[in-house]
């Protein structure tokens, strides 16, 4: 039998929303879109098929709030806005690459487990 879980095992964790939201549906994909440099809103929409402008805006704002991206508005006609990963935002590229590698290696096992669970 294993030891009981300690009741204070999370005592040092802040009781708030996670510091950075990367596990949602879109944040990781947006990070990958910005990996090679700044992109405009409309450029981001192309590979992110299915994302609504409202959700893309909300996700980019949350990423900006968390310091992952910068938003630069240019005083041009028509106005131009670009989003770019910050140096801090770039620090998630390595862990994301590890997770992508893990997912590729274990995808068949994971999908099989899901299928068995649903059966």
What does this structure look like?
It contains 5 helices and 3 strands; from the N terminus they run αβααββαα. The chain has helices spanning 27-34, 41-45, 53-65, 87-90, 93-118; strands at residues 39-40, 69-74, 80-85. With 119 residues, it is α+β, with helices and mostly antiparallel strands.
| Rg (CA only) | 19 Å
Helical region count? 5
What would you call the shape? extended
Number-wise, the strands total 3
Strand residues, percent: 5-15%
Give the topology string: H per helix, E per strand. HEHHEEHH
Which helices and strands occur, and which strands form pairs?
Layout: H1 27-34, E1 39-40, H2 41-45, H3 53-65, E2 69-74, E3 80-85, H4 87-90, H5 93-118
Antiparallel strand pairs: 1-3, 2-3
Q: What descriptive keywords fit this protein?
A:
12% strand; 119 residues; 47% helix; 3-stranded antiparallel beta sheet; extended; 3 strands
Summarize the structure.
Helix content is 47%, strand content 12%. The chain contains five helices and three strands. It has helices at 27-34, 41-45, 53-65, 87-90, 93-118; strands at 39-40, 69-74, 80-85.
């Amino acid at each position: 039998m294993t030891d009981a879980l300690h009741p204070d095992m999370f005592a040092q964790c802040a009781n708030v929303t996670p510091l950075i939201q990367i596990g949602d549906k879109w944040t990781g994909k947006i990070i990958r879109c910005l990996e090679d440099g700044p992109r405009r809103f409309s450029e981001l929409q192309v590979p992110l098929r299915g994302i609504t402008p409202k959700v893309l805006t909300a996700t980019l704002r949350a990423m900006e709030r968390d310091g992952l991206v910068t938003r630069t508005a240019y005083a041009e006609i028509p106005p131009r806005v670009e989003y770019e990963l910050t140096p801090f935002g770039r620090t998630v590229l390595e862990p994301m690459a590890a997770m992508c590698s893990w997912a590729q290696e274990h995808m068949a096992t994971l999908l099989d487990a899901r299928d068995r669970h649903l059966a």
